[in-house]
């Protein structure tokens, strides 16, 4: 008797599920492009590509869109010395924003160099890294160009921040580092 009751329950469930299906109602698809791709043959129909399906290289000397300018000083000791001697900031005094520079400095530099530029950042205090010099060290003699060059390429154990900061942001950080250096030398 129990087995017959189980079969009846299963049969009732199957019939109820089958009765819910109505072929006359439309089947709605939400976001069909997620599972029904549309194929494009973009390169095949164009006469612009001489060598088949390959995309072309950018025109020689072109610069990518956005806030990018090429930095043509090499990552060598000679390049560092050249940047230290000759590289100047393209920002004039009205474009320098110390508040923005401070925010960026605190995010990327303050952990090692300290919020005052004295080389006493959190990692230095916890002895995770050692030997971070202060900006006012006499033997250091940092300049606008040398700061930018080190931010761009890195130096010794400091890595490059060229991918994290765009050109304008790098120059804002340079201006803020110079301000910290001047404050320390008072």
Summarize the structure in words.
By secondary structure, this protein is mainly alpha-helical. The chain has a domain of 108 residues: Cytochrome Bc1 Complex, Chain D, domain 2 (Orthogonal Bundle). Helix content is 40%, strand content 0%. The chain has 7 helices and no strands. α6 crosses α7. The longest helix is centred in the N-terminal third of the chain and has 18 residues. It is elongated. The mean pLDDT is 82.
Please give the structural blueprint.
Blueprint: H1 2-19, H2 77-86, H3 98-108, H4 110-113, H5 122-125, H6 144-153, H7 167-184
Helix pairs in contact: 2-6, 3-7, 6-7
Which short descriptors sum up this protein?
mainly alpha, 40% helix, Cytochrome Bc1 Complex, Chain D, domain 2, elongated, single chain
């Amino acid at each position: 008797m129990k087995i017959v009751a189980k079969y009846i329950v299963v049969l009732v469930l199957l019939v109820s599920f089958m009765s819910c299906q109505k072929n006359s109602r439309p089947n709605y698809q939400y976001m069909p492009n997620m599972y029904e791709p549309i194929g494009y043959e973009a390169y095949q129909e164009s006469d612009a590509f001489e060598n088949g399906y390959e995309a072309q290289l950018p025109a020689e000397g072109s610069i990518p869109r956005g806030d990018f300018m090429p930095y043509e000083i090499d990552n060598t000791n000679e390049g560092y010395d050249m940047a230290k001697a000759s590289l100047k900031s393209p920002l004039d005094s009205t474009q320098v924003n110390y508040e923005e520079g401070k925010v960026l400095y605190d995010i990327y530099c303050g952990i090692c160099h300290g919020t005052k530029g004295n080389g006493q950042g959190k990692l230095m205090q916890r002895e995770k890294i050692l030997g971070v010099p202060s900006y006012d060290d006499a033997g250091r003699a940092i300049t606008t160009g040398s700061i930018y060059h080190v931010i761009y390429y890195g130096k010794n154990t400091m890595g490059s921040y060229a991918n994290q900061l765009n050109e304008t942001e790098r120059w804002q950080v340079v201006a803020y580092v110079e301000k910290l250096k001047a404050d320390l030398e008072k």
